[in-house]
Structures are given as C-alpha cells and as structure tokens.
Design a protein that fits this description.
By secondary structure, this protein is an alpha+beta fold. The chain folds into three domains: 2-108, Tetratricopeptide repeat domain (Serine Threonine Protein Phosphatase 5, Tetratricopeptide repeat), CATH 1.25.40.10; 124-325; 332-479, Protein Transport Mog1p, Chain A (3-Layer(aba) Sandwich). It has nine helices and 25 strands. Strands 8-7-6-5-4-3-2-1-15-14-13-12-11-10-9 form a 15-stranded mixed sheet. α7 links the parallel β9 (229-230) and β10 (248-255). α3 (43-55) runs antiparallel to α4 (61-77). The longest helix has 21 residues, at 2-22.
C-alpha cells in the first residue's frame, strides 16, 4: 500500500513537472534559450529550446520570429551555413511583418553581399551580340559606364544599357544613377519601344516607381526592408563582387519594370576559357537563379576587370563583341569591311553589323543613345538590284519603294518631300513617307539613297510622329559623314 501510494505521488510529481514545462510561457523559454546560448555557450541546447518555441502552435508570433532568428544565428555560430540559410529563409517567408528581424536576417545571411572596388574605367563601352540557339544573330546589348554630375549637382556613376533586337525592330534604353560611395541607386529609367517607360526614385526605405502606359502615369511605392540594387546596374554589381570558384551570395535586386523585389542567388561554378568575337578570356562561370525557377548563366573574366564575356538565358546566347572607350564629345567611327565606306556618329551612338554572308550586300544598324528611331543602312551592288550606273538616285530608289508599299499599310510618299542633293560627293535623293505599322500605330519613314559607281546605299529611319523631327536631324548629321571608296 505504501509503495502504491509512493508511486502515485511520484507520478503526480512527474505530471506536474511535465505540465509546468509545457505551460511555461514562450517569453520565459526565450529568456532561457538566450541565457543558454550566450552565457552558458551550449548552442545545441539553445537550438533545442528555440525549436520548442517554434513547435508550440500557441507561441506569441513576435517571440516566435525572434526564436527563428536566434535559431538561425546559432547555426551560423556552429558553421552550419546550409541550416542557417534555411532558418533565415523561414523567418523571411513566415514572418514578413517582422521587418527589423528580416533586415537582421538578410544582413547575416551566409554569403552576404560584399561589394569591392570599381573594376571598370570611366567611359568604358561593351557590346554583346545576341544569337538564337541556331546561331542566327538577332540583336545586341550595349553597356556603358560614365562618371557624371546630376542636375542636382551630385557626382554619380551612370550605368546605361541599350537593347536592340533587329529581329523584330524593338529597342530600349535604360540608365541608373548610383552613389559613388556605396553604389546604391538614386534614380533609374527603363524605356522600351514595346514594354513602355518606367522611372524610379530611391530613398533609404522605399522606392517610388512611375510607369507611363498609353499616356497615363501609374505610381507604385514599394517599402524596402533592406538596401537594394537596381536591376539596370546588376552587371556592374556582379563585377564588383569577390568572384572565385565556390563563391555564393544573394543579390537584392529591384526590377522597377514590373515593380518586383527579387533575391537572386548567385553561385560561381567553375573556371572556363572561352573564345568570343572580342578575344579569348579565362572566365568564371556564374549561375543566377531567377525567382527560384529560371537558371541564367553568365561568364565573367577572371582578371581584375571582371568583364561580362558570355551569357546564356533560356537558349538566347550573348557573346562579347567589342570593348571600347568613349570620351565625352568624342565621335564614334565605323568602317565597312566589305565595301570600304566610312561613317561617324556622335558620342553614345553604336553600330551593329548584321551577318555578312551575302557578298552583294551589307547591312548596318545605327543605334542612337535615346532609342529615338530605328536607323538602318543598306548597301547593295547595282548588279544585284538589276540597276545601272547611268540611272539617277530617284530612278534607282523607286523599285525599292514599290516593294515597301506592298508590305506597309497605307504607305504614302509625301510628294513635296523629294530632295535631290549630294552625299560625300555622290548624287543622292531623300524623301519622307507615312504608313501604319503591324500594331496599327502611325509611323514616318525617311530614306536617303546615295548612288555609287557600283553600289546603292540607302539610309532608312522609322520613327513615331512625335520623334520624327529629332530623329531626322540626328540621322542627317550621320549621313553627312558618309564617305565611299
């Protein structure tokens, strides 16, 4: 009887103790876990208590978030980066309202971003030509970096990207002004002929994005829990990272077009030696995981420049074609390798030559810095066009105009626009025409044809009505520099 009573008393004590432990408030458990972690130094025991708080469905939400952060920090102290990253990610995913704790998590995330010194020179221009998996060239990207001063008098780096897709005639220009000291974005603009026009203004805790669509402005303000970088400076951000095989980090990116805040994991996979049009480079092969779905691969040179050499984005391949330096006010020169003519254009312009497989023709895209118009230059032999040197430029051009009229809706030549003149000492003629594009938008075309001894050169632009006067004035300046053999 005594033994049974004693067992009952002992069982009651155990139940009481167990009940007391289960009922212990989350606040007391958190204090105990912090004491165990920081004073006792028993990380494993502290991890167990933090996990107990998280497993309790009735835990105070704010205290649970603190436990999640401290759990991650314990793993970090133990050198278990994978477990720490998973714990930090759970905090960000499960407690989005705990902004201060999330900021702390991002700051301590393994592989956190460390930005090194600038690796490029003021005035550097890089051109990367884009191709389909078949090898067919479809367009080009042009990156440039310049130190400049804003209208407000602040010295900044201005990163500019020009996108030109010859396949469908779309183009865009984007730029971002960044602080010289910490490389944080101040303002940015993304303009594309199809996607629209977006501007952004950054402050420490938010970004205000204004998107212009069909003449109406939409404003979107996004709160920022950590400092971010603009998508249009991402290439240059990567160039400032301490790249080496095995290096990992996460890029906190703000894609202002679409208003998306992205965390993009970056991993340096290996070294490879690549040969591209710009030369041979030893490269770091870098994997970027976009929205945890799409892998984009880029190759950056292993030297101290970290120049982008190649990219593979869902089958689209880009290869570095040229690296140049452009000083402010310096003209850009072009020499055609097939027919030997030369051109020059103002600073900021670029020349993109299409495939040169046909010996009887040559094509060049003249890319203006503000994407004002589509500017093309075509050269054909008179023989291939079934023309002869005795014809006037107008007579040579008229068959081409007939073909244009067949493929453009409402194609109408302005009869009073015909002008006969000379270009580079050669007879030439110019005209203006109106038409409707495939999207139903009104467009204006401007053509200057130059008759050579054996070739016909055609400068052509396509512009929106509101940009036409500017586009025409710009291309006329370029045409005036044309010199043939």
């Amino acid at each position: 009887m005594m033994t049974r009573t004693l067992n009952t008393i002992l069982l009651a004590c155990v139940l009481t103790l167990t009940s007391s432990a289960i009922a212990q408030p989350a606040s007391e458990l958190l204090e105990k876990a912090i004491f165990t972690e920081e004073t006792v130094g028993d990380l494993d025991a502290a991890i167990g208590i933090y996990q107990q708080i998280l497993d309790d469905a009735e835990s105070n939400r704010k205290l649970a978030a603190q436990a999640q952060l401290r759990l991650a920090m314990c793993y970090l102290k133990k050198g278990q980066d994978t477990e720490a990253t998973e714990a930090f990610d759970l905090l960000i995913e499960n407690y989005p309202d705990q902004k201060e704790l999330i900021a702390e998590a991002r700051k301590n995330m393994p592989g956190r971003l460390v930005v090194g010194p600038v690796t490029w020179d003021d005035g550097e221009v890089m051109r990367m030509d884009m191709s389909l998996p078949t090898g067919m060239k479809i367009g080009t990207f042009i990156w440039s970096a310049n130190q400049t001063r804003t209208d407000a008098g602040q010295d900044v780096w201005r990163m500019t990207t020009r996108r030109y897709i010859a396949l469908n005639g779309s183009q865009g220009v984007s730029s971002v002004d960044v602080n010289l000291e910490d490389f944080r974005p101040l303002t940015s603009r993304f303009m594309h002929t199809i996607l629209g026009d977006t501007t952004a203004t950054y402050s420490p805790n938010q970004v205000e994005i204004i998107t212009a669509t069909k003449g109406e402005d939409t404003t979107n303000t996004i709160e920022l829990d950590v400092p971010v970088y603009d998508n249009e400076q991402a290439i240059y951000l990567i160039r400032r990272l301490p790249l080496e095989v095995g290096y990992k980090t996460t890029l906190p990116i703000m894609a202002t077009f679409g208003g998306q805040r992205l965390d993009i994991p970056l991993t340096v996979l290996e070294k490879e030696t690549l040969t591209v049009p710009a030369g041979e480079f030893e490269c770091y092969k870098v994997d970027l995981l976009i929205q945890n779905v799409v892998h984009q691969t880029m190759w950056f040179s292993t030297d101290d420049k970290h120049q982008p050499v190649k990219l593979n984005a869902d089958g689209i391949v880009g290869e570095l074609a040229a690296i140049e330096m452009q000083a402010a006010g310096e003209s850009v020169e072009y020499t055609d390798s097939k027919f030997g003519f030369t051109l020059s254009a103002p600073t900021g312009w670029s020349f993109y030559q299409t495939d040169q497989n046909n010996p009887t023709e040559s094509g060049v895209h003249l890319i203006d810095p503000d994407a004002t118009a589509i500017n093309l230059l075509d050269v054909d032999t008179l023989e291939s066009l079934e023309l002869n040197a005795g014809q006037t430029p107008r007579e040579m051009l008229e068959p081409h105009l007939d073909k244009m009229a067949q493929h453009r809706a409402d194609f109408t030549i302005r009869e009073d626009s015909w002008v006969e003149h000379t270009v580079g000492g050669r007879p030439a003629v110019s005209l203006t025409a109106d038409f409707i594009d495939q999207q139903g938008n009104p467009k204006i075309g401007y053509i200057t044809a130059v008759a050579g001894e054996t070739t016909l050169t055609k400068f052509k632009i396509v512009s929106s009505p509101e940009n036409f006067d500017t586009a025409k004035a710009q291309i006329d300046l370029v045409i005036a520099t044309y010199k043939a053999k």
